[in-house]
Amino acid sequence: MRSASSRRWVALGVTLIGVVLFVLSMNRTWWGIVMFAPQYPQGLTAISSLREMTGDVGELDELNHYIGMMKLGDAAALERGVAPYLVWGFGALALCAGLTSRWWLNLLLRIPLIGFPFGFLADLKFWLWYAGNHLDPKAALSQAVKAFTPVMLGEGKIAQFRTYGWVEPGFWLAVAGASLVLAGFVLTMRSRTREV
Predict the structure, then answer these.
(1) Sequence-separated (6 or more) residues with CB below 8 Å from residue 93
(2) Whole-number Å distance between alpha carbons of 110 and 22
(3) Is the Cβ–Cβ distance between 179 and 18 less than 8 Å?
């Protein structure tokens, strides 16, 4: 039988591994979309990390200009600016959770990291909706395209473009990290109930 102290160290170790995975996700891509049309059979791609959008961004911005859609780089500018600080801060909070003896504070300190990947998806969904539903009425082709929301995950269609969206490795690293941080909480609680 493991002692309560060794069980607490195991819980802290699991949490630490989760935080490391979460921090590593910051330098990976989180989401991508590819758009196919007759004139773009190879597709145009936009790939998002927590800090930037890469891929065929210039060409997509040029096409979006004609329908009055905002530039890709203008979407979620605030979020991209604060993301590194949030990742490090939420990671530090999760590690501090292992040092508290109050179960509710332990959980409360872990929640921001656990919820971060899902917050990313919710924020992404908002910006996809906003960009497609706030088109400039003065744009050259504004009358040709009605308001739309690009499909975030899976297949979609925008005018003559077929789209496909997916999550990238950074998102899955963050989910794995969040799962381990949650597992660390469960292990901490189990070690405490065995002490009683």
Answers:
(1) 109, 110, 112, 113
(2) 12
(3) yes
Inter-axis angle of helices 169-195 and 4-24, nearest 10: 170
126: its two tokens: 């908002």
Q: What is the dihedral of CA 14, 16, 17, 20, to 10 degrees?
A: 160
Nearest Cα neighbor of 171 from 119, 132, 117, 133 is 117
Q: What is the 3-state secondary structure (H, E, C) of the chain?
A: CCCHHHHHHHHHHHHHHHHHHHHHHHHCEEEEEEEEECCEEEEEEEEEECCCEEECHHHHHHHHHHHCCCCHHHCCHHHHHHHHHHHHHHHHHHHHHCCCCCHHHHHHHHHHHHHHHHHHHHHHHHHHHHHHHCCCCCCCCCCCCCCCCCCCCEEEEECCEEEEEEECHHHHHHHHHHHHHHHHHHHHHHHHHHHC
pTM above 0.85, yes or no: yes
Phi, psi angle pair for 68, to nearest 5°: 85, 20
CA 110/CA 134 separation, integer angstroms: 36
Number of residues assigned to the chain: 196
Closest to 69 measured CA to CA, from 159, 185, 169, 156: 159
pLDDT in tens, 141-173: 878 888 999 999 999 998 889 999 999 999 999
- Residues 6 or more apart whose CB falls under 8 angstroms from that of 119 comprise none
Reported as a single tens digit per residue, the pLDDT across 43-52 is 999 999 999 9
